[in-house]
Amino acid sequence: MSDASWHHDTLYTNGIKLHYVTQGEGPLMLLLHGFPEFWYSWRHQIPEFATDHKVVALDLRGYNDSDKPEAQSAYVMAEFINDVKGVIEGLGYDRCILVGHDWGGAIAWSFAYAHPELVERLIVLNLPHPAKFSEGLRTPQQILKSWYIAFFQLPLLPELLFQFDDFSLLEQAFRGMAIDQSAFTDADIEAYKNAFAKRGALTGAINYYRNLFAQFSVERSWGILTIPTLMIWGEADTALGKELTYGTEKYVQDFRIRYIPNCSHWVQQEQPQLVNQFMREFLE
Predict the structure, then answer these.
(1) Among 90, 126, 144, 201, which one is least packed by beta carbons within 10 Å?
(2) What's the pLDDT score for residue 83?
(3) Catalytic hit among 20, 208, 209, 251
C-alpha cells in the first residue's frame, strides 16, 4: 500500500541520515514506529492526518532506509532522543504532535520528558509509561511475556533465526499475534520482509534490546508530565499486559486512555479506523 502523494525524503542529524515518508502541510505530526516495523506501520494514519497536518513517518535509526550504525552503543535512548530533536528542528518546526508505538512509544515517552517544550501533544500506542514498564519487568507475568528480550541478548542467533526460511518469523510476529489476521495482506508482509533484508537492519533493530537492561538498571524518578497525553491500548496484546497501563495517571497530569478490545499489539494496523477516530477526538 503506497500513495502517490507520499513523499520520501532524508534528513541528516545527530551524525546520521534518517529516512522518512511525508504527506500534507500544517502542524507537524511525527510518527515513531516499533519493532519489527518501519515507517510503513503508519500507512493507515498518514493519509488520514495529512488532511490538516504535515505527517512525517520516520524510519528509526537502524531500520529500513535510515542509517544503521555498527556500534551497539549507538542504540541507546540518549541517541534516539537526539535523533527526534534533530528531525523536528531539521524540518523547521519548534514543536510537534508526537505519536509512538512500541519502541517508538518508549522513545516518545522519554522525549516528552527530555524536551517538553517541543511536544504539543503526546499519543502512545501499546507501550506503558517507563515507570510502569520498569515495575512490570519485576513481575513474573510480564517477565514471561518479555522472554524474547532475554533471547535478543545473544549474539548473532536472533538475526539468523529471523532470516531463516525467508523471514518467516516476521510473518509469525504479525499474523501470529494479530486477532484479525486479514489486517496484514501478503503485500504488507512482503514490505516488512524487504525492509529487514537490507544489510544491517536486523542487527540495528535488535540492538535496541541489547542495551535495554543497562538502561533499566539506572533507577530514575519520573516526574509528572504536563503534556496532554492519549494512550491507546489493544487489550489482547500478548507482549505487554494491560495491567501495565493502570496507574499511569500518577505520572501524567492530563491523561486519557482508550482501550480497544479484541485487538493485538499491532493496534494501529489492526484497528486503524478506531485508532484514527480516537486520535482525531483527542486532537480536536
Answers:
(1) 144
(2) 98
(3) 209
Question: Can you read off the three cell numbers belonging to residue 146?
Answer: 518479555
Cβ neighbors of 260 (< 8 A, separation 6 or more) are 232, 233, 234, 235, 267, 271, 274, 275
Q: Positive or negative, the Cα torsion across 176, 31, 191, 152?
A: negative
Note the pLDDT tens digit of each residue in 33-73.
999 999 999 999 999 999 999 999 999 999 999 999 999 99
| pLDDT of 2 higher than 80 | no
CATH architecture of the domain 7-283 equals: 3-Layer(aba) Sandwich (3.40)
Q: How far is Cα 208 from Cα 198, in angstroms, rounded to an integer? A: 17
**Termini Cα distance of the chain:** 28
Could you tell me which of 209, 252, 241, 214 has the C-alpha nearest to residue 103?
209
**Active-site residue, 209 included:** yes
pLDDT in tens, 249-269: 999 999 999 999 999 999 999
Q: pLDDT averaged over the chain?
A: 96
The question of whether 53 is a catalytic residue gets the answer no
Question: Tens of pLDDT along 187-239?
Answer: 999 999 999 999 999 999 999 999 987 776 566 889 999 999 999 999 999 99
The residues, ordered by sequence, that sit 6+ positions from 275 with a Cβ below 8 Å of its Cβ are 44, 45, 125, 232, 260, 267, 268
Rg value, the chain, Cα: 17
Reduce the DSSP state of residue 274 to 3 states and report it.
Answer: helix
Rounded-to-10 torsion of CA 50, 279, 127, 203: -10
Q: Which among 102, 188, 192, 237 is annotated as catalytic?
A: 102
Can you give the pTM of this predicted structure?
0.97
Instruction: Confirm if 126 and 234 have CB atoms less than 8 A apart.
Output: yes
What's the rounded mean pLDDT across residues 138-161? Answer: 94
Cα 18 → chain centroid: 15
